[in-house]
Amino acid sequence: MMAAFPPLLPPAPRLLLLLTVAAGWVGKEPAAFAAATAGDPAPPGKIAVIGGGIGGSSVAHFLQQHFGPQVQLDVYEKDTVGGRLSTVTVNKQQYESGGASIHALSLHMQDFVKLLGLKHRREVAGKSAIFNGEQFVLEETDWYLLNLFRLWWHYGMSFLRLQMWVEEVMEKFMRIYKYQAHGYSFSRLEVLLHSLGGDTFVNMTQRTVAESLLEVGVTQRFIDDVIVAILRAGYGQSVLVPAFAGAMSIAGAQGNMWAVEGGNKMVCSGLLRLTKANIIQATVTAISLHNSEGKTFYQVHYEDEEGQGSSFYDIVVIATQLHDSKNNITFQNFDPPIAEFPGVFHTTVTSIVHGYLNSSYFGFPDPKLFPFASVLTTDTPALFFNSMDNICPVNISGVFRRKQPQEAAVWRVHSQRPLDKPELKILFRSYYSVQVTEWQAYPDYESAKTLPPIILHNNLYYLNSVEWAAGSMEMAAVAAKNVALLAYNYWYHDLEKIDQKDLMHKVKTEL
């Protein structure tokens, strides 16, 4: 999730218990997955992964985990490894400009950090508030009970109803780790979601988060003030996003967040280094289908600094966006042809600004009195930014302290479009530098109502289809594990591990 709302909402004790239980399953594989038996088909010789972000690096790791180190893994990346996990440099310090926060229940990401010997970045506390363009409608304090009282005073029982709704969704979602630990995989997103939460989860991709919250008793005022602010900070979109995507974003807004010391992108480079994947710095232009002696294989065409080239593969995993008009991958020799997917991606602009905050704009003429490290916003026409936060470098020493509001600090501002100079002058009294990155970070969830396929053809997989259910680092890792298992199960014809029903009962009987 691109941004997170710090803990205005109370923690969920059952989620912590669930984390303890589920953590025991991560990274453990049944003995059946240690190696193929003598009667099985020969393992694939070469596998291509297109995209070197968190999805591509995760799936390369999981593919090697299942197929073994003898498989050659080629990872195509046209830019830099990490994709939407990226940093910028300000005064010789690096700061997250892409995916910044990871939820405590992100068990695959937790496992990657342990596997790679990385560390959690030390958290530097800071208070948050929600701004409506004229005043703060909700302010966090240093006192937990006072925060709860303010929530109750302004919104009644809405925050508790929200907490119960999100907790129920997350509790069911956590089943995926047990399913994957037992080798089960899913050929369609609808089947995966149904295995976790039945028809409720599938329906949550078709109705808005606002509809779902109103149904469980959350008030419209709470939605307009708090939920809108969370979704603007997370997805840069409104409460018309699907309920499942909204629940994932709200879950990442309830505190218990962490990041990787040195930058979250280190997970991507670390996984690719661990798998000894061959990283090909090139743009994939086409994938063509070939058949020989009843066997399907693929030719991946690409362009690099030396010109055009191609290689043949047994399995191809696409871990980049196919919905985006900027993606020019064509599919050749497919009958029927690979269909184009409806929907576009939403542009989020991240501005990393090194400067002095104009606290007067927020009603604090004396900058020393401005108490907030993070400002979220409501959906107000006059507001030209979604959120802003005083960010810390990716490497934090033991003596590090957050800059005081009257000092020059590094701020990360999310907006729908690049900020012009007058808008920057509204937010900052003066500034030394501005670094702007335009991300197509998440789908525009209102632009398509159908979930794209995971399987495009035999042994051709679309990992990023998961983003149309919900987008985050952990969702990409979950999808990567599913695709790796799916590829393994299909390759060795273990169909009993694909799209099985009543998985909770099956898993219990396998314990």
From TrEMBL:
Top-level taxon: Eukaryota
GO aspect biological process, one term: prenylcysteine catabolic process
Protein family according to the UniProt entry: Belongs to the flavin monoamine oxidase family. FIG1 subfamily.
Name the UniProt record assigns to this protein: L-amino-acid oxidase
Signal peptide location: 1-24
InterPro entries in the record: FAD/NAD-bd_sf, Prenylcys_lyase, Prenylcysteine_Oxase1
GO molecular function: L-amino-acid oxidase activity; prenylcysteine oxidase activity
PANTHER family, sorted: FARNESYLCYSTEINE LYASE, PRENYLCYSTEINE OXIDASE-LIKE
The enzyme's E.C. designation: 1.4.3.2
Cofactor(s) it depends on: FAD
Pfam families: NAD_binding_8, Prenylcys_lyase
Residue ranges of every copy of the Prenylcysteine lyase domain listed in the record: 138-500
Record keywords: FAD, Flavoprotein, Glycoprotein, Oxidoreductase, Signal
